[in-house]
Amino acid sequence: MSSETKMRFALRTKIGVFVLLYCGGILFGLDLIYSNFFHREDTGSARISSARYSHGFAANYQGPDSWGPLNYQLYTNSLGFKDGMVRKVAAKADAHRTLLIGDSFTEGMGMRFEDSFAGMLYQAGQVHAEKIEFLNAAVSSYSPVIYLQKIRLLLESGFRFDELIVFLDISDIGEEATTYFCIDDEPRYRRHCDANAPLNLKEELKQWIRQNLVVLNRTRLLIKDGVRAWLGDDDWNAQVVLTLDSIPNMESSWTFAGSTTTLPPLGIEGGIARGLKNMKALADLLAERRIPLTIVVYPWPLQLAHDDQDSRHIAIWREFCIRNCKSFINLFPVFFAERDAHPDWYNRLFIHGDIHFSVEGHVLMFGELSKHLF
Fold first, then answer.
1. Concatenated DSSP letters of 4-52
2. Is residue 133 within 8 Å of 197, Cβ to Cβ?
3. Do 93 and 180 reside in the same domain of the chain?
4. Alpha-carbon span 144 to 5, nearest angstrom
5. Residue 29 burial by CB count (10 A; 0-12/13-18/19+): exposed, middle or buried?
6. What confidence category does residue 308 fall into, taking pLDDT thresholds of 50, 70 and 90?
7. Integer Cα distance of 163 and 169 in angstroms
8. With 309 labelled, which of 18, 36, 87, 138 sits at a CA distance of 20 to 30 A?
9. 293-297 and 132-136 beta bridge pairing
10. Residue 20 — pLDDT band, cuts 50, 70, 90?
11. 77 vs 83: CA distance, rounded Å
């Protein structure tokens, strides 16, 4: 290739990159204008920031929510908990009150309240011979430090409950290792806090894109669905959630021996130590008020695909519960039984292309939890 040809190629490349950036900038600007001044589909978001516990739901919210291609109506009660309707919840209950808390799996990501295991527990508790009021304080991306701070604030506000069930997710160790340092009680963790950064940058960014780049976000979802259709559900699902090196599994692969997951700044062991520290503080807080604590653990699809039955996740929290819990509920066996009984277990129990439970997965959770809680 002559020098003149190389120069022409370089010039054309620069022009091409400039045109792409120029057009991209125009589309970005038009999307911002449309999303903020002309788009009227959304009526606001239920997801809000909190100085005490990072983030949660606005109280008494009714409106649309979405998870990927799934759209549903979201309701919250007067406490800012996901619920079946907008309603006032009294500070004290006449019946036995059990509070649930966890992350997106317990929130019921992509599900209406009544289709989630928390909603099923609520309905069953209402008709049980000895009535039990189940309330769901879970929100996506929660972890032990938030469980502690949110429960502490609820108790300080005069809210009363008789039992707490914490659904400890495999991703909780990753959250404890990498985030929420600004709300931690201990200086050794707070020193990692950037006071100028949002308390939950990941959630803030997701929400900003949904609200301010509506066209871009919908285009992304259409492309994702198109790729899924082209590859076929089975291939797509295997690539996204069933391989050890896939991006969605970075926070769950720490349970495997030889994991290369780094989880800065604390690392895996630091995340475990911090998680245990915050759960111990929560257990002590509850013990002072004679409120029993139950811990529930369950697998991600990755654990099922790679036979992580004797998971480190189970071992950590089982050991913790010996001295700190009323009971420990391990749901790994029931999920592994489903895996062994049904070759299509992933498509049955999880949202396609995702790690979260499908309606059938929530039914499985509810069925097994009912054996312990009623």
1. HHHHHHHHHHHHHHHHHHHHHHHHHHHHHHHHHHT--S----SEEEETT
2. no
3. yes
4. 61
5. exposed
6. very high
7. 19
8. 138
9. unpaired
10. confident
11. 6
Token digits of residue 80: 């800012």
d(CA 242, CA 248): 9
Determine the 3-state secondary structure of 65 from DSSP: strand
> Are residues 141 and 228 both part of a single domain?
yes
204 lies in the same domain as 338: yes
Give pTM, 2 decimals: 0.83
Same domain for 126 and 16?
A: no
Task: Specify whether 10 is located in the same domain as 154.
Answer: no
- Least confident window among 27-36, 104-113, 198-207: 198-207
Alpha carbon distance 208, 31 (integer Å): 13
Question: Are 62 and 6 members of one domain?
Answer: no
> Does 210 have pLDDT greater than 70?
no
pLDDT value, residue 27: 83
Amino acid making up residue 245: D
CB atoms within 10 A of CB 319: 12
**How large a percentage of the chain has pLDDT more than 90?**
68
Using alpha carbons only, give the angle 216, 220, 222 rounded to the nearest 5 degrees: 115
What residue has token string 């490349």? Answer: 13
pLDDT at 215: 76
- CA angle centred on 252, ends 239 and 243, rounded to 5°: 20
Q: Counting Cβ atoms within 10 Å, is residue 7 exposed (0-12), middle (13-18) or buried (19+)?
A: exposed
Non-local (6+) Cβ contacts of 228 within 8 A are: 236, 352, 353
Question: Please, which residues have CB within 8 angstroms of residue 272's CB and are 6 or more apart in sequence?
Answer: 173, 176, 316
Query: β-strand 327-330 against 132-136: which pairing, if any?
Result: unpaired
